[in-house]
Each structure stands twice: as C-alpha cells, then as structure tokens.
Amino acid sequence: MADTLEFNEIYQEVKGSMNDGRLRLSRQGVIFKNSKTGKVDNIQASELAEGVWRRVALGHGLKLLTKNGHVYKYDGFRESEFDKLSDFFKAHYRLELAEKDLCVKGWNWGTVRFGGQLLSFDIGEQPVFEIPLSNVSQCTTGKNEVTLEFHQNDDAEVSLMEVRFYVPPTQEDGVDPVEAFAQNVLSKADVIQATGDAICIFRELQCLTPRGRYDIRIYPTFLHLHGKTFDYKIPYTTVLRLFLLPHKDQRQMFFVISLDPPIKQGQTRYHFLILLFSKDEDISLTLNMNEEEVEKRFEGRLTKNMSGSLYEMVSRVMKALVNRKITVPGNFQGHSGAQCITCSYKASSGLLYPLERGFIYVHKPPVHIRFDEISFVNFARGTTTTRSFDFEIETKQGTQYTFSSIEREEYGKLFDFVNAKKLNIKNRGLKEGMKQSYDEYADSDEDQHDAYLERMKEEGKIREENANDSSDGSGEETDESFNPGEEDDDVAEEFDSNASASSSSGDGDSDRDEKKPAKKAKIVKDRKPRKKQLESKKGKDPNAPKRPMSAYMLWLNANREKIKSDHPGISITDLSKKAGELWKAMSKEKKEEWDRKAEDARRDYEKAMKEYSVGSKSESSKTERSKKKKKKQEKQTKGRVEKKGAASKSLSSTKSSAKSMSESFKSKEFVSSDESSSGESKKEDSEEEGAASPPPSSEDSASGSD
Prior knowledge:
8-stranded mixed sheet, single chain, PH-domain like, alpha+beta, 31 strands
C-alpha cells in the first residue's frame, strides 16, 4: 500500500464557505492546502479520533474529529474512493472509517447533541444537519426559545444568518433547559465580548488601511481597534500572516496584518490591516499581567516590562498572541539599495516587496501574491515613457496584476530575482528546465544555471555603462524601446559617432558648421499614396438594362404570396428555407417550364445590351473629342501666358541693368557733395539730350561762329 494519498479539487468547509484546495494523507497525518489563501491545515495522525464517510451535495465527504474537539470537513470525493481511504485509515491511523448517511425525512423535531465544536441536530441515530459553533456570532434566549445568529459569509451568494430552536420545558426543578442550551453554545461560539482588562494598549497608532489613527487594545483572544469614528474587533483566529516591511526611505516601517475573513465597514472589505511606524519612536511597555502568568502563557516570548522601538513592541506582542511567524523581505536588493521597488498599481503609487515566497504591494490597494499561485510573469514596455517598464503577473485563476512605472535600472535585479525563484517568464517563453519545481505543499529554493540570464547580466552592465557615459555628456535622453536581450542601435542611427563639442571661436560660418555634431537625417521611406480602388466610382446608369433573373428567382417571385398565405406569420429566413425545400421537391417538368422563361429573359437582356452598348459608344466618342479640343485650347492659352511673362521679364531686366550701369559710373565729385551732384546730374541729362538730337545745320553753325 502507498504511504501517501493525494486528492485534487477537494473542498474544505470553513465557516459556511467551501474553499478548494489539495488534500494529502500520509503516515504522519493529514495536510490540506487552501488554493485561495495558501493556508495549510496540518492534523497529526496521533490527534485523529474518528473518521466518518457520508454522502453530501458535492458527491461524498470525509469528516474528521480530533481528540481536542476540532472538526474538519472535506467534500468532493468520488464514491469509488471509499475503499482506498478505508484501507488507508485502517493501515496507518488504526481507525475504522464509518459510513453515516444524513437523515432526509424532512422532520423538524429531534434531539440536539453537543460534541466538541459541533452542534448536531439528530433524528434517531441519523444527523439532519450540523452547525459549527465557531460560526455563531450571537446567541439570545427567550421563553422556551434560543436564537443563533451567524457571521456573514462574503464568499457565498446566499448565507444563513439565523436559526431558532424551540426548547420544551422539563419537569426537573432548578434546571432551565433554555439557559443550559445557550451556555453550551456560548462556550464554543466565536462571540467577541470585551470583558476584563486589556493585556496592553498602544495609543494613537497611524493606520493606512483602514485610514485613521486608532488605539489598539490587545486582549487574550482578539484585537480591538478603537478610533474616533469606527471600532473593529479582530479575532486572532482570522489573522493569516504578519509582515514587517522597511520603507524605502529607511526611516519608517510597515507592519501588515493579513486577515481572512476581512474586517467590514459597510460594503467595504479590508483584507489587510497596515500600520505605519517611525523608526525613531520608542516606547516602554508594561503588560497587565503578573510575571508568573506572563511566563506561563508566553513561555519567555514576552516579559512583563519591555522597552524598545514602537514597531518592534507591536510586532513582538502580535507574534506571541497570534502564534505566527513574521515575514520580512529576503535577500532582494534593488538598484537604489532598498529592499523594495517603487511602482504604480491601478491609480496610486506604492512599493512592491519581492519576498522569499511571494510578492506584496503596499499600500493602496494592498496585494499579496504567492509564488505557488503564479502562472507566469511578464516584463512589458512602459506605455508612457521608455525610462520605465511594467511588471505583469498572471495567476493560475486568470487574475492579472500590472505594476507599472518601474525604473529601467531595476530590470536586471528584478529579472535575476524572478529567474532564481523559477517563475515562468512570458517574454522568454517556457524553456526546458524552467518549469516551476514547487512542491504542492511547500516552496523550493533550488537554483540552476541559465545561459540567457548570464547574457542578460552582461547586457545590463553595458547598458549601465552607456547610461553613465551619456549622463556625463550632453544629458540628452534617447527614445529607446524596451526589448530585453536586444542591443540598442537607435542612438548610432540618429547621431554621428565622431561628434565633438561645437567650437566657440569665430573662424567663420563654414568652420563652425564643420565642428558641430551634424545630425544625420533619418531615412524615411517615401510613402506611396494609396491607390484609390476606383478614382471616380462609376455610377450605375439607370438606363442600362437590368440583369435577367434565374429560373428559381422567377418561380419564387411568382409563388411568394402563396407561401405566405399557406404559412401565416412566417419570417423572411424561414420563408426562404421553405421556398428552397419546395423548389428542391419540384418535378423536372415544372422546373423546365421556369428554365424556358429564364432563357427567354436572358435573350431579351442580351438584345437590349447590344442596343445600349452601341448608343453608349457614340456618346463616349463625342465626349472624348470635346475633351481633346478643350485640352488643346488650354495648352494654347498657357503658351500665350508664358510668352507674355518672358517678355515682361526681359524688359524689367534691361531696365534694371541700365540703372545699375548708371549708378556704377558715378564720379568722386558726385559722391562728395550733394550740390555738385545735383548740378552734374542736370548737365549729364542735358548732354544726353544733345547726343540724342540730330547734328546742327550749316546755317546754325555759321551763325554760331559769328
């Protein structure tokens, strides 16, 4: 016989809700691991007192009773597994697995039995239903009546809130059966009553969720948060985990208490209680117990008088009362030396802590993800800037968490951590040997060599060196895409590699231009304009003859109304189906008649098309001739305009050249004085006029000589 039995998809009934998980039976005992919370219930073989096999709603179930009165219920077994379980119990636990069926008569009159943590309502020897007394939140009595109220179950759509029992009066003197019933319930119920004095009180502690300042009163069985607006009572049995996390600034500490079920305020549920402490704040604490009681109860974990940092005192007291280990960050160290990574989740910024067995994000909203529930992680490029990246986590249940705006320098450290924990990385794909090696009931920290990781480390070093060099230089940012494992070649394309600092000396524009780092023009491929499928969609000519109908369509048009009358209210789709069936079932002779009609329609269409095409050809030739004529006229007018432009250009050029010539041959006297220049200009004008006039006649010359 095998030493262990394992069952998947087993449901454990806890406080009215069915939590799925894995069950393992071994020689040492029974272990159940909750898939949702990761909580492990361990029942030692020596503690088992009774095992019961019975039929339940989810197939068959196993009920285990321990010697100290605790009851554990597991459902989801198949009927065929009874023999295997029965033999295992006999061989390893020396217990007989008894078969007990529930009573289904529907009677409401029976006997109540109290056994350990259970209230069982029986008819004869068969149980009708059982109530775990830890589910009871309140017990009230009336005349011959006891009312039980239950804790609200957030996981169930419908939950039982109240049950009333009628207790008949008895003839015995001095014993009230109603009070006896109520006392039995209250002794085992999860009823929080703040009776007696608190062990210690911490005043005005800063709480991030729920937000505010609260006095924390520590009682033996529960924690009391007393604020100005709200009060919360938290039983220690609901505390799942404790975390002590250093803030990135190294001056503050987070103390996180994970709760299941959560505390409620209206419709809001708080799964985490987060306290924020300053490291500099000290306290001296005195427990409200004598030294003997402290020693007996806490066995040296606490003393009557203690002093130290406030966060140390709170965490030490909580650890002793809850009896759970405090989780602290492991050996992870980010780029800045902190044990956390700054990032954003949803709308707010916070800190992501990589732990030894999971990730925790604080603080709004707090998220805790265990490694054994992670399907894969993904490193994605940031949506807004290339200086950061996103870290995505997807669980086996399909829930996705995206932590964005993580600094690019954190990538190498986070990648090393994820790879060392053997989490599947989506970017890389699932390589051989990189599958999770987690035990179903524990974590594994084994490591192995990965060539991809070594390459990534080398590239990370190169990137850091390049980043340092660029920060010492111009300080310009380059737009790089986040592609892990690829070299960044964009910088070489954009800037000249031999660029030097620009010269400040005045050697001329050409020298300065030579020494400036010339930006190379990016090669942009000319985008070819998309060809329109049809530049001008030809409109349908209304005068064109219509296509002929097929034989089936001619028959359908003729018989449509008849089919509608035979089947009133028939839809269009059903009508087409019915018509198809009738056409299929029609004889060949009848079909030939409609084929002839279709052939006649086709001939008529071809004849009409010939006539239409002849007419359209003549029209098209006319339009083409008119288009050619129009183009010719446009060319001629364009040529005339060009000639005119050339002529005007030449005229203006001659005028300007003459003007420039006259200006260029001015004498020094003309430049020196304005008066002489004006006189000279007049003279020149008169000389020019004389030179232009015809030569004088002989008479004129003679008279002139005289």
